[in-house]
Design brief:
The chain is an alpha/beta fold. The protein is about 30% helix and about 15% strand. Bound molecules: S-adenosylmethionine (SAM). The site of S-adenosylmethionine (SAM) has 20 residues, from strand 3, strand 5 and helix 10.
Length: about 325
């Protein structure tokens, strides 16, 4: 439990800060804010943190980045994580570009759930936002469905003036493939100059637009994993749509259940707060398991009651370095 009575049993692990796409709101083209020399935690170091975290009571783990699948050892990492006592579920957040080849090996390694980013369906819209090719991602989604994961979800960041026209096609796509779609409010987590406040589109505004088309039926018991989305079933399309109102929902942090491990080995109690605790230096200076456990406990003690996104929060490092 953290100091605010929340059960924290979910660790999101960024395995790399590198990515093979250049999303407008995350790590736009020309981004130069890398660590000078990439020095992510090794597989052994990650496994050590996971083992100690599981001993403390963490049960759910998610690999993210950057784009986790640019790192080659993810299937081995998943397999080794799943073999650790206490590790109940390992999930992955990915842009899907490499899933066509990797979905099956990941499933065989024991990966349970996959969240795939999809901000547009049209090739031009997708290219404009990410710099990449939507066809590769659609192949990746098909491969993930085929591989038989416990759950595959789609994630779309809401961008006023950028992908508003894509939302309805995305909902129909999600319904057709029976995949939950989560619509995420843009958070100020990246030094992206391509976007500003005028690009913010609230979850409430989108709900209102959808309601004009068809009824939204609240699905209160479907937590569908461990995320913060509120889900609705669209009465006619049948789509299951989750809204992640990080910026506008005042109760957003009340059910927070997670801390993060950054690619460079910092434990981050809250995405929307600058506080971090350095594990990498400790791990490399011969720390004992008890020292690693103490840092994780301290992260829980330092976890703030809510994020600071709505104040004058400016990210010290981009989402890609922290792990989305
Ligand atoms: N590359 C992987 C992916 O695409 O899912 C994992 C990392 S990515 C940072 C994780 C999620 O964070 C993606 O769904 C992405 O769209 C979202 N994200 C990145 N920057 C964001 C921002 N400024 N506001 C809201 N969501 C953001």
């Amino acid at each position: 439990m953290d100091a605010h009575g929340r059960l924290i049993d979910y660790l999101r692990i960024s395995v790399t800060d590198r990515c093979d796409e250049r999303c407008l709101y995350c790590m736009p083209e020309g981004y130069r804010g890398w660590e000078r020399r990439p020095d992510p935690l090794s597989r052994e170091e990650i496994l050590r943190v996971v083992r100690v975290a599981a001993e403390l009571g963490f049960r759910k783990f998610r690999l993210t980045g950057g784009e986790p699948l640019v790192r080659r050892d993810v299937p081995e990492l998943v397999r080794a994580m799943k073999a650790l006592p206490g590790v109940r579920r390992v999930g992955l957040s990915t842009n899907g570009t490499r899933l066509a080849a990797l979905a099956r090996p990941l499933r065989e390694a024991g990966l349970g759930t996959v969240n795939i980013s999809l901000d547009a369906l049209s090739p031009e819209g997708y290219r404009r936002i990410t710099g990449g090719r939507v066809e590769r991602v659609l192949e990746g989604i098909a491969a993930a469905v085929e591989a038989g994961f416990e759950r595959v979800k789609l994630n779309t960041v809401l961008l006023a003036g950028v992908n508003e026209e894509e939302i309805w096609p995305l909902i129909r796509f999600a319904a057709r493939h029976d995949l939950p779609l989560r619509l995420i409010e843009l958070m100020p987590v990246s030094p992206a100059e391509q976007l500003d406040d005028t690009n913010f589109l609230s979850a409430a505004a989108v709900m209102e637009r959808l309601r004009r088309r068809e009824a939204l039926i609240p699905v209160s018991d479907a937590r569908l994993g461990y995320g913060p989305a509120k889900y609705y079933r669209l009465a006619e399309t049948g789509a299951l749509v989750g809204f992640i109102g990080a910026m506008t929902n005042h109760h957003f942090c009340d059910t927070c259940n997670r801390v993060r491990l950054t690619a460079d080995g910092k434990v981050r109690p809250c995405l929307g707060n600058h506080g971090e605790l350095d594990l990498r230096a400790m791990l490399r200076a011969g720390a004992k398991d008890a020292d690693v456990a103490a840092v994780l406990r301290e992260a829980l003690a330092q976890k703030p009651p809510r994020h600071e996104f709505c104040g004058a929060y400016a990210p010290a490092r981009p989402m890609t370095a922290i792990g989305g």
